[in-house]
Each structure stands twice: as C-alpha cells, then as structure tokens.
C-alpha cells in the first residue's frame, strides 16, 4: 500500500506532542491571516501595549554594542506578571487557538484580555501569530529590546518568525522544522539589506514535552547556525510543553533601509524577485499522503504526481536554506547610513511576499498609499496552482516560497536590479507600476481569480468598479 502507515504514525506523534501537522494545508501557512490580525489589533482598546503591525521593527545600531534582549513567556489566557520589564520596545509572538484566531472579534477579545494584565507601556511593531487546535498550547511572548547609548552607525532590524508549513513526512524533531523557522527570519532581514552573515543573531523560540526532543532540537539549532556561521543566543525552551518552532532574529546594516514607502511616485515600476507560488505543491503532496485517491484525481486532470513531488521537494529545500545573496544585492542599491536618498540610484521600497502571495500587493499599496496596476502575474508551477484553485484544495495558490519579494524603483534602476538578481539564480520580472498616488488599491490586468479560490479573500484584493481610481 502506497499510503504508508509511517505517515499516520508521524501525524499521531505530532498531535500527541501538542502540534497540528495538517492545519496549514488549505492556507499554506500556520500563521493567523494578516487581514484578521490587523482587524483584531485595530479593535484593541486602552492597552498599555501598543501593537502597530509591521513585517519588521528597526533599531539603531550602536557602534560596538548589541542591544540586550529579555524574553518573557506568558499564558495567553491568564498571564501572570511577577515583575514587569521596564523596557519600552519589544518583538512579540502569539500562539492562539483556531477558535479565536480565525475570527477577528474573538481574536481581538483574546489579545485584549492578554494585554490588560500589563501596566508598563510597551511599543510593538513586529508581531507574529500562529494557530493551534490545542487550547493549552497557547502563549504570548515578548522579547524586550533594550538599546544602549553611543554613536549610531547603522540600523539593526528585528523580526519574528514561526515555521509556516510542516513537512509531515519527517519526524516531529527533524531539523527541517527549525531550519524553516530560522530561514524565514533570515529571509526578511536579507530583504532589508542585511547580507553579511556575521551580522546576524538568532534567538530561537522552541518547545517540546520531553527533554529528549528538546535536546534534539538544540542539536539541530547548533548545526544550522554553525553551517552558516550565525550567532545564536539560546533562551531555553518556552516550558509550556507543546511542540513549537520559531525564532526572533536581528541583524545589522550600515545602509539606509529600503522602506521609503512614502516616497514612491507615479510611474515607478514594481518587480517580483521570483515567481509567486510554490507552497501549494506542498499542500497537494500532503493531501495525496492523506488519501491516495487524490493521486488519481491529479492524474485525471493531467497533473502528474511526479511533478507535484518534484515541486514539493524544491519547496522544502528552498524554505530550509538561506540565500544571503539577496541581502547583498539589496544593500548595493541602498544609500550609506545617513547619506541622502536618490530615487534614480536607490531602491525606494521592498515588501515580502511569503505565504500571503499576491495579497502582499495589497499591503504594499496601503503602505505606499498608492494604486498599483499589475499587468503580469508570473506563478511558479502554474498548472498545479490553477488545479489547486479549481478544485478548492488551496485558498491562495500564489502563496510563495522564499526568494519571492516585491521591489519598487524607478524604471532605469529596476533594469539594473533585475540584472543583478539574475546573476544569483533569481527569476525577477516586471509586474506593474505605481499608477496613482493617494488611494490604496490594486488592479490586475490578468484574471487573478484563477489562483485564488476564496471569493471572500479575492474581494479584499480586487476593488469593485465603483472603488477604482477615476471611476
């Protein structure tokens, strides 16, 4: 029998360890939907913890000094504070029950209940949230960042990341899971122009119910950071006793950051550094392991299972291996720290795509307060993506592997960036322009509905004719 008992043994092991190994399949991510998270946080009232959701936070890099990170982990439903940390800024990570995490009003209520226990004022810009079906696996984590005085020589961006998809064919303590979480964080820092490996520092977030598994996870973390010559500070496990993989991470750069969203101008071009998509192959492969009848359905629709398997293997490899060349390319087109910005020589803005796929364009439009006209939509494994959408197997078939990001720059500069990206095995393409300033929306020339099965989500992405600029 092709559907091995070993697969279901793995699934059972994950569940016994307090982890949900199959929940990510329809959305290609374990994370809370970014639209739901934003809506929930907007409804949180009168809290001393102010969360302004962004994909990163940034601190000044002080010459010769690293900021101090103080980690605190709390029960999400009943946080107990012995003594609050008197630090004004923090990175945050939440693990919330699916009952609340998939519905903005309930998520807002859950976060409000958590925040009300705190009295000291804390500002959080970077907060990630993941879903769990296990109520006792929920937690709230704050990584307080204390800065030092001294000469400012650059920036030190900070991010958080959790393992977004799970390779269920591997054991719960396999190195792939922690590698994916680490690589995801590094990817975000690379996009900000941090390309020198010695400038990175990782602060793993992990947990498991047994010392045996914890020891294996620590061994995997050591192997990963040694392989890429990365600094790591281990704050021990979360001590909740439920399997979890994530990380906080920081890196330094002596360049200005490529996030000048307010300086985007009409006529600037948008490129995607690699094709959208890639994650749906992981979902389809896993669905075939769940029920071998799916292989027959694939083949009947001229989608070979061998092709899905190859695409899935490529996705796992991509998610597990950092590509520092991206950071070096971005840094090349950023002004030195403190130097003036020149739109004809420097990248104006970047934004990560990740599991949100084309919905990252919505976020970019909001940050740039611009109407984006998208005339190309390159999608990796396009036939697999269309099939997954047609059969309602995946909500958003543009959910992307690493290396897929949005870059905004002037026309002449875009050509230079594309040339450099191609030298490092990226497949960049021009996909559109900043068509109009003053209104946040996205319009597609091509039918994006062939890649987005969720009509509700599609409605958030494409405005009605009455909402179109100039209508």
Helix count, per DSSP? 14
* Spatial shape: globular
Strand content: 15-25%
Structural class: alpha+beta
Largest sheet: 6 strands, mixed
Helix and strand pattern: HHEEEEHHEEEHEHEEEHHHHEHEHEHEEH
Task: Please estimate the helix content.
Answer: 25-40%
Low-confidence stretches: 464-468
* Total DSSP E strands: 16
Radius of gyration: 22 Å
Tally of individual domains? 2
- Average pLDDT confidence is 93
Q: Strands across the major sheet, in which order? A: 12-14-11-15-13-16
Oligomeric form = single chain
Termini separation: 59 Å
Question: Keywords for this structure?
Answer:
23% strand, globular, Phosphoribosyl-aminoimidazole Synthetase, Chain A, domain 2, 5-stranded mixed beta sheet, 2 domains, alpha+beta, 6-stranded mixed beta sheet, 471 residues, 32% helix
Write the layout of secondary structure elements.
Elements: H1 5-16, H2 34-42, E1 49-54, E2 57-62, E3 68-74, E4 89-97, H3 98-101, H4 104-115, E5 122-132, E6 139-146, E7 152-162, H5 175-191, E8 200-207, H6 211-227, E9 231-232, E10 244-251, E11 269-272, H7 280-290, H8 293-300, H9 305-320, H10 325-332, E12 349-352, H11 359-368, E13 370-374, H12 382-390, E14 405-409, H13 411-423, E15 429-437, E16 441-444, H14 455-461
Parallel strand pairs: 1-5, 4-5, 8-9, 13-16
Antiparallel strand pairs: 2-7, 3-6, 4-6, 7-10, 8-10, 11-14, 11-15, 12-14, 13-15
């Amino acid at each position: 029998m092709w559907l091995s008992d070993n697969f279901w043994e793995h699934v059972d092991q994950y569940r016994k360890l307090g982890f949900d190994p199959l929940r990510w399949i329809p959305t290609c991510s374990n994370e809370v939907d970014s639209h739901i998270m934003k809506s929930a946080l907007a409804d949180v009232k009168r809290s001393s913890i102010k969360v302004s959701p962004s994909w990163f936070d940034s601190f000044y890099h002080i010459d010769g000094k690293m900021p101090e990170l103080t980690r605190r982990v709390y029960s999400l439903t009943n946080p107990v504070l012995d003594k609050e940390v008197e630090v004004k800024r923090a990175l945050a990570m939440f693990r919330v029950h699916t009952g609340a995490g998939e519905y903005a009003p309930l998520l807002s209520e859950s976060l409000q209940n958590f925040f009300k226990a705190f009295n000291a004022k804390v500002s959080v810009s970077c907060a990630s949230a993941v879903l769990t079906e296990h109520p006792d696996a929920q937690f709230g984590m704050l990584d307080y960042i204390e800065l030092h005085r001294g000469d400012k020589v650059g920036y030190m961006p900070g991010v958080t990341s959790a393992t977004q998809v799970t390779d269920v064919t591997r054991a719960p303590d396999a190195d792939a899971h922690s590698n994916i979480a680490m690589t995801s964080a590094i990817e975000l820092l690379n996009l900000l122009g941090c390309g020198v490996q010695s400038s990175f520092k990782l602060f793993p977030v992990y947990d498991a119910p047994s010392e045996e598994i914890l020891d294996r996870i620590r061994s995997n973390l050591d192997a990963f950071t040694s392989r890429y010559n990365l600094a790591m500070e281990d704050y021990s496990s979360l001590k909740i006793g439920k399997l979890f993989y994530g990380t906080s991470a920081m890196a330094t750069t002596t360049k200005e950051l490529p996030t000048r969203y307010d300086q985007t101008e009409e006529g600037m071009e948008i490129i995607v550094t690699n094709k959208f998509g890639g994650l749906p192959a992981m979902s389809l492969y896993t669905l075939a392991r769940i029920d071998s009848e799916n292989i027959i359905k694939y083949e009947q629709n001229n989608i070979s299972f061998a092709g899905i398997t190859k695409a899935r293997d490529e996705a796992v490899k991509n998610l597990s291996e950092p590509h520092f060349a991206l950071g070096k390319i971005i840094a090349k087109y950023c002004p030195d720290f403190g130097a003036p910005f020149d739109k004809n020589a420097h990248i104006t803005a970047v934004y990560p795509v990740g599991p949100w796929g084309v919905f990252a364009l919505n976020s970019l439009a909001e940050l740039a307060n611009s109407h984006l006209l998208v005339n190309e939509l390159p999608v990796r494994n396009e036939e697999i993506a269309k099939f997954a959408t047609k059969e309602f197997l995946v909500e958003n078939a543009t959910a992307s592997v690493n290396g897929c990001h949005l870059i905004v720059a002037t026309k002449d500069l875009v050509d230079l960036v594309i040339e450099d990206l191609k030298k490092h095995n990226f497949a960049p393409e021009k996909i559109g322009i900043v068509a109009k300033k003053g209104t946040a929306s996205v319009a597609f020339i091509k039918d994006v509905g062939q890649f987005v099965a969720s009509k509700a989500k599609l409605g958030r992405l494409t405005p009605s004719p009455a909402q179109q600029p100039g209508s």
